[in-house]
Amino acid sequence: MSMKFINIINSVKTILTDASGGGFQVVDHEPKSEGSKDINDLKKVLVYFSSDNFDRNSGTTNGTLQSKPTFKILLQVSAMGVFTDSDDPSSLVSAEAMANTQWDLFASQIFLILMNAKNVFLGLAVGEISNRFIDTIQKGEIIRDGDDAVILGTMDLTCNTTEIVSGEIATVGTDVTSNLTIGDDTEQNSAVTEPQ
Amino acid sequence: MGNRELLREAKKTLRNEWFLPIILTAPDKTVYDKINGTENQLLGDVRSESKPFDPDVGGRIVIDRVSITILLSDLARVPAEGETWFVEYPEDLLENGTLKKTAFTSDNIDVGGSTIGYIKVFPQEIKSA
User: What is the ipTM of this complex?
Assistant: First the structure.
């Protein structure tokens, strides 16, 4: 058994992916950093868990616990300028204008998808969540001093849910193992040799 | 030779030996590819970097950024507020490289203050509609 916010975030991702129609990409983690070239011509929406609030007076030792998780939805847009006449600079729609228009439409699109009446339970079973709501939309300033104009912005998606504390002893998680192979690139001398 | 004269000569030496050929196109389609009043190729200090930005909203974003610094005295006409210009520069930042056409508006210009005597533009990539 896992906490509900994990199910919710997976469901939100599914809703957005199904509705994207290839027009944007859904990513499920908060990025350390992003290259503007990775976003150009492919808008990105990143959905990740932000915080959870529990009502201390709403639960029991073994039983239900009311909570209000918050999910961050990060909207990334990067755009180039677009011209109609390669000899006429005045025919150009600037990268800033393109990015600005694209971000507004993108935010509107995501808002309307998530607030659509069909998604009142965010794709989960009736009663799993309630009061799903986008509380805030915040648009950042245009970053204009690069090859592309970039705009980032966030939405806060909240809902009410009930966590069930079963009283079972937690199951030990599965071990995660990985193999590390050290290269033997003789050109860059990256090989690691055993000490003699 | 006075200090001002020396500085002026040093700027010319820097321009002639380090700057790269560029071509500017004004909003009225006039092409500027010569240093004002001469038959010499117009030159700019073209530099490229990947610059991380930490915007007020969202995560860090890394943007490729090109800057072109041009001597104001080399220009027959200086880009004005509200104007959009094309600028072409060698894509590989080598003297004989293929020219890449980009654009800038008055929003992408840094002029005045520490750049007195120069205009610094941050061109943006463009594509056909």
Answer: 0.81
Residue A75 near residue A47 (C-beta atoms within 8 A): no
Contacts of B85 in chain A (CB under 8 A): 89
pLDDT at B56: 80
B52 vs A33, A83, A89: nearest CB = A33
B94 alpha carbon, distance to own chain's centre: 15
Please tell me the predicted confidence (pLDDT) of residue B112: 61
Residues of A in Cβ contact (< 8 Å) with B120: none
**What is the number of other CB atoms lying within 10 angstroms of the CB of residue A132?**
20
Query: In DSSP terms, which residues pair with A34 in a beta bridge?
Result: B61
The reply to whether B62 touches chain A by the CB within 8 Å rule is yes
Counted across chains A and B, CB pairs separated by less than 8 A come out at 131
Report the distance separating Cα B85 and Cα B101, nearest Å: 10
Task: For residue A112, give Cα distances in angstroms to A16, A108, A115, A117, A145.
Answer: 11, 6, 5, 9, 31
Q: Report yes or no: B119 and B85 within 8 Å, Cβ to Cβ.
A: no
Q: Is the dihedral of CA B29, B35, B41, B47 positive or negative?
A: negative
pTM of the model: 0.81
Domain A4-165 falls under CATH 3.30.2000.10: yes
Separation of alpha carbons A150 and B22, rounded Å? 26
Closest residue on chain A to B51 (Cα): A146
The tens place of each residue's pLDDT in chain A, 196 residues long, gives 688 999 999 999 999 999 999 889 898 776 677 788 777 778 999 999 999 998 888 766 677 889 999 999 999 999 999 999 999 999 999 999 999 999 999 999 999 999 999 999 999 999 899 999 999 999 999 988 889 999 999 999 999 999 887 766 666 677 777 665 566 655 555 655 555 4
Dihedral Cα A81, A84, A88, A91, nearest 10 deg: -60
**A41 interfacial to chain B (CB closer than 8 Å):** no
